[in-house]
């Protein structure tokens, strides 16, 4: 079976290409993809050859991880279902994470159409939903998970490191739970997209320490893998507080447990997605308090994926939500 996909053919090289996908099996669903969402953080590390899968960084001597189908999230319409598939019907709009492909470094990928996905990688969406609202659902779930992990009481000060998508959704989730949220970022355009009740601080122009009070910070979420900034915030954290580390740290993710123990700081290390959290994230979007499409900054036809990646590489600070229309 043939499909078209966004393929990283080598380091910092991308093509919209025809690929081979397995014939659908009895547990698979075939989807005609409408829209997919580029995870600019995670996918960029694959694009640069910095990791080979999941949380595994590339090391000299590892197999070179190309070619590979980029991404892991999309929305489309069910075309057909396998004989063992239950709960999905042709014509329904669904979200799909990973889909099958052959001839690549990894046998699964995201940005491809049509997509052949195992049933456990698919979630039904509410009737009448807009594809753009849900096509970044895995990444939205990561931010949701970051915001749900720590204990939060009304009025607690929560600091989010990073103004990217995970940081934005973690901040929205903490706000929904009653926290007083501060987002530390480096891009005025991104910070301007935060809800009004969240304070955005550009650390290029403002000292982090100047916006914090000793013993007041109850939660820190690091969405970008910036241990130096966490180290600057830690003295302001109160006893029995929480550190949520979600950014990719490669081989540099060292945490001094003894310094956490001195303040009884709980360490959370969220990664990936689960069915339960995906369902909860879908409900949060449907309920309207978790906002997704307002964070979209760029839209491209899928066949112009190379242009999308040039834009991400050359104008990173302007890119937040980047989606492909199929």
From TrEMBL:
Span of domain Alcohol dehydrogenase-like N-terminal: 26-127
Domain of life: Bacteria
Swiss-Prot/TrEMBL keywords: Oxidoreductase
GO function terms (MF aspect): oxidoreductase activity
Stored InterPro entries: ADH-like_N (IPR013154), GroES-like_sf (IPR011032), NAD(P)-bd_dom_sf (IPR036291)
Keyword Oxidoreductase (UniProt): yes
A Pfam short name: ADH_zinc_N_2
Cross-referenced CDD domains: 2-desacetyl-2-hydroxyethyl_bacteriochlorophyllide_like
Protein name (record): Alcohol dehydrogenase-like N-terminal domain-containing protein
Species name: Paenibacillus ginsengarvi
Source lineage: Bacteria, Bacillati, Bacillota, Bacilli, Bacillales
């Amino acid at each position: 079976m043939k499909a078209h996909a966004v393929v990283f053919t080598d380091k910092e090289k991308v093509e919209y290409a025809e690929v081979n996908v397995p014939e659908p099996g009895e547990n698979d669903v075939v989807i005609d993809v409408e829209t997919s969402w580029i995870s600019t953080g995670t996918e960029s590390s694959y694009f640069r050859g910095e990791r080979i899968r999941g949380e595994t960084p590339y090391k000299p001597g590892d197999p070179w991880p190309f070619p590979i189908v980029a991404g892991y999230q999309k929305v489309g319409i069910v075309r057909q279902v396998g004989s063992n598939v239950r709960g999905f019907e042709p014509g329904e709009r669904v979200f799909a994470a990973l889909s099958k492909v052959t001839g690549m470094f990894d046998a699964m990928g995201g940005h491809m159409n049509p997509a052949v996905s195992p049933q456990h990688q698919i979630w039904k969406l509410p009737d009448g939903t807009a594809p753009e609202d849900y096509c970044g659902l895995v990444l939205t779930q990561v931010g949701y998970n970051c915001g749900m992990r720590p204990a939060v009481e009304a009025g607690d000060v929560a600091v989010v490191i990073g103004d990217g998508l995970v940081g934005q959704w973690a901040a929205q989730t903490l706000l929904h739970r009653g926290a007083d949220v501060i987002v530390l970022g480096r891009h005025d355009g991104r910070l301007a997209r935060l809800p009004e009740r969240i304070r955005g601080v550009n650390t290029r122009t403002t000292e982090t320490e100047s916006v914090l009070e000793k013993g007041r910070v109850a939660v820190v979420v690091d969405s970008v893998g910036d241990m130096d900034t966490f180290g600057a915030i830690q003295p302001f954290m109160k006893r029995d507080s929480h550190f949520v580390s979600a950014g990719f740290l490669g081989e540099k993710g060292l945490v001094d447990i003894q310094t956490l123990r001195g303040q009884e700081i709980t360490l959370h290390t969220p990664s990936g997605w689960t069915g339960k959290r995906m369902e909860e994230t879908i409900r949060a979007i449907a309920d309207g308090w978790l906002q997704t499409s307002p964070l979209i900054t760029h839209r491209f036809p899928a066949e112009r994926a190379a242009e999308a990646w040039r834009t991400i590489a050359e104008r990173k600070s302007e890119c937040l939500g980047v989606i492909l229309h199929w």
